[in-house]
Design a protein that fits this description.
Chain A contains 21 helices and 20 strands.
């Protein structure tokens, strides 16, 4: 612990974050966070990135954390600032992404006065955070910050202050530190050293043997992969198991981060609809969860079950202890059942470029045909991509896909921001549905300000298409009110919207347009946006 | 109570809302709200207005409630949908606006499964609502809805199901009704009759006499007006008191709704800064709160008090009982101390049109010079308007001003949406700071879709100007990090942004531009946007 009698609490806080290797702060500050902002000047190791809306800041921190395995900070202003960031923190929570929120609050003596911006920050923070603390004294601020960082990683596998980019950043959690303004502005802060992160629990050898026995039993097994199991290391182990035992592999759909493409084992996604999942698991005697949860449908529907696993399928958990290392368990399992088997790697086989009018069916093939090496794909294509994107990119160069983990829309553009800052040498492709784009559109401005190499493709079908499908599915019908899912009248013009935030943009109406514009965007530095105007199925 | 065995819970819910005179629903629905949407088809008395972000829906409901005194409904999707709407519900709470939120939740049997969108809706709702209920059975749904509406009005003055547009809609509260999807889709719902709203408590005659005695004592008195006291009726009574007794009047700044302009008594605003408030109250022996709270600064600052009322000033409350009728109390007080005095009404005296470059100092005079009769002014101009707007519009035709009550930015464009739907025959002028506009910009799309007569003036000073001032004020300094308040690099182009959402737009660089464009916008139906590019003080 370092005592700094002449420095502010905010300085000790930022110093501690920097020492704990938190190097980026996605910020939308207000009056109560001014000393934090001032501290950034003297600590250039922390990069401040201005976001024009808190939902952009939190979504960016999520994207950053997924790519680095280590938290970024957010800087949010009081309860309303946190409220604006909650939806993407919900996605981060569902992604197990490490994120440290720093939320400024009123000075202690001011809180009881119920001034205009007063609200219940603690209640809001509790809904998304694995760890919440309100700093009680300036002496504690450094320690609190160090513990906040550690808490984001304790269910993960990172070492002290270190980051391991070969792992997925998908075994952490959200911490929220609430900092009264008077602690920030007072002097006498003490920074604190990083808290040592315990190594994840070693998988139980005995338990791994029992799973191995299942796999050798001759009964049909399915391995459902999620979290770190979808890293390259996890997928390679799973593929060895698949080849040696005949077990089938499935990957959680819209996972936090999945390694895909040529040279990576290919895994079919778990379907979105319950009855499709039931069909996928129909013959399975055993469902083995590898970092995954038992399948649950996203919504309940009249007269349908929310639990699609067939009743005769027995469910097992590969790494039973909380925080156990799923990837290590997969490696151990593979060494048991497939000691001499190599994984089956997807061949390089990008799809041919489609031609003609752009439709819901063919746009993904353009992306798959032209996807660059080591791309980071932020996928919020929703209905536009559900049926086609996975297959279209299976043979593209190796890449990572970040999915809409919590189904809270408005994640794509912000997470692309964070991913691009985390990985400045990798191209980021943001596949963004139109309706969802409008939630956090100002992320485009941050793309431009930070000159991030992000190519955004807006999939414009002029509707909340998923809701049209859902309306029917829940057994409701609506005619006049179907206008509540209609995004035309007026049409959104994403080219103008992008220009308004300093991002070069073009509109594509044919597959040829999209291919030409996508190639150009990839060849130039900085952000680009392409509005892909999609006709319905069949063109 | 009306039993409708063949109809859904959602239908009974909407039917009850309609019967309780809730006639507009600002909606951003999802799967769990589909039956509500379907019910809208059979109940055309409820107008569904699609908003592309929940913060627009809640801000619109706030603007609507301020203008009608009666709640609109919002329709929000699960916890993340409510979370996205919280910041403007915070403003509604601080405005005492009646609003009924309908938040869909998962079906009861689905909740325990912790599916991807599951979150703690109740905790979120509690932070902004005066009334929260989770419907427990389909039989209760109608009754719950009727009670939700009544709860928004119980501190107000409206009669059963009725609205009284001569009053300000500023004595209500926010209700949140959480509706599990299975209650919505099941049949056997019963609508419920409106709950009778009790009349507000009559002011105590004895207490009013004691205040009258103060006013006649020869000691210096200040009446601080807020809420319904800022209605025309309240202001007229206050003006009579001022003229007859020499008491001074002050109006809360950024009030929920204030009547202003020619023919209305003019009242100086309470200042924003604590030391300015202390100076305003320096000679006051008595501060009489008329629907207002004791002044509290918005933020604490090192070595400054948050309570700017001078220690020797005694504070009194005009209408002591909660829910007592402040306007009636002012009338009674005026009849005591000023039985034969007429109010002093502001003369018609719009400012002359300024000329030359547009600056922070002169833009408001253009608005004041051209403001149309019975305009509704949604004021989120913040620093751009703080010093000049009030004076510039004091002699304009009579109008209402809706202020940023909770200081949670991003309210202006949404509240204009709601005000225009509430009052289709009145021109709505939205004065919107640039940084704040980006929070809820998609409100412009709703302006266009609903063809609302809203003229938005974006005050573009390319910065979070208030934060530059605050940085200095809290005793912090920052150089490199001052970029965190800088909205240039790239410049936001609001003309392109407006075009992208179907709103005609122009840019004004001179006072002459602004005058010409403002006149044209007012003369044409439907929405318009003018980007006023402001030079700093002094041009």
């Amino acid at each position: 612990m370092q005592t700094m009698p002449g420095t502010t609490g905010a300085h000790a806080l930022v110093r501690t974050l920097v020492d704990s290797d938190v190097r980026v702060c996605f910020a939308n500050p207000g009056t109560s966070e001014m000393h934090f902002v001032a501290a950034l000047d003297t600590l250039p190791q922390m990069r401040g990135v201005l976001c024009l809306f808190e939902g952009v800041a939190t979504g960016a921190a999520d994207g950053y954390g997924r790519m680095t395995g280590h938290p970024a900070a957010t800087l949010l202003h009081l309860g309303p600032g946190l409220a604006n960031g909650l939806a993407n923190l919900h996605n981060a929570r569902r992604a197990n992404t490490p994120v440290v929120n720093v939320v400024g609050d009123h000075a202690l003596g001011h809180k009881a006065l119920d001034s205009l911006l007063e609200s219940n920050i603690d209640a809001l923070a509790g809904t998304v955070s694995g760890w919440v603390r309100r700093s009680a004294s300036i002496e504690d601020l450094g320690t609190d910050a160090a513990e906040a960082v550690a808490a984001t990683l304790t269910s993960g596998a990172a070492g002290e202050g270190g980051r391991d980019p070969s792992r997925n950043g998908t075994s952490g959690s959200v911490s929220t530190l609430i900092v009264p303004a008077d602690l920030s502005w007072s002097t006498g802060g003490r920074s604190a050293r990083p808290v040592k992160i315990p190594a994840p629990a070693a998988p139980s050898e005995q338990h791994v043997r029992s799973i191995a026995k299942l796999l050798r039993s001759g009964e049909s097994c399915v391995l459902l992969l999620d979290g770190p199991a979808l890293s390259e290391q996890g997928l390679r182990a799973a593929s060895r198991i698949e080849r040696a035992t005949g077990a089938r592999l499935l990957a959680r759909n819209w996972a936090a981060r999945q390694r895909r493409g040529a040279g990576v084992p290919h895994v079919e996604p778990l379907a979105y609809r319950g009855e499709q999942i039931t069909a996928q698991l129909r013959d399975a005697h055993h469902l083995i969860l590898c970092g995954a949860r038992t399948p649950v449908t996203s919504f309940a529907y009249p007269d349908r079950s929310s639990l699609p696993t067939p009743p005769d399928t027995r469910v097992h958990v590969l790494a039973e202890d909380e925080g156990a290392d799923t990837v290590l368990a997969l490696d151990m399992l593979a060494d048991h059942v497939a000691p001499h088997t190599e994984p089956l790697l997807a061949p390089s086989a990008p799809p041919p470029l489609p031609r003609g009018a752009l439709t819901v069916d063919n746009w993904a093939a353009v992306i798959g045909a032209l996807l660059p090496e080591e791309a980071i794909v932020c996928d919020e294509s929703i209905t536009a991509g559900m049926a086609t994107l996975h297959a279209a990119t299976a043979g593209s160069p190796p890449h990572d896909v970040l999915g809409l983990t919590g189904l809270s829309i408005g994640q794509g553009l912000p997470s692309a921001t964070g991913a691009a800052i985390a990985c400045p040498d990798r191209p980021v492709i943001c596949l963004q549905a139109d309706g969802s784009a409008m939630y956090t559109l100002s992320a485009l401005w941050s793309h431009a300000r930070e000159h991030l190499d992000i190519t955004t493709v807006i999939l414009n079908n002029s509707s909340y298409a998923i809701l049209r499908a859902e309306l029917e599915r829940v057994g409701a019908t609506a005619e006049a009110s179907a206008q509540l899912f209609d995004l035309s009248r007026p049409d959104l013009d994403f080219v103008s919207l992008a220009h308004g935030m300093g991002v070069p943009a073009e509109r594509a109406g044919t597959a040829e347009d999209l291919a030409r514009q996508f190639r150009r965007a990839l060849s130039e530095p900085g952000p680009h946006l392409i509005e892909a105007v999609l006709l319905p199925h069949g063109g």
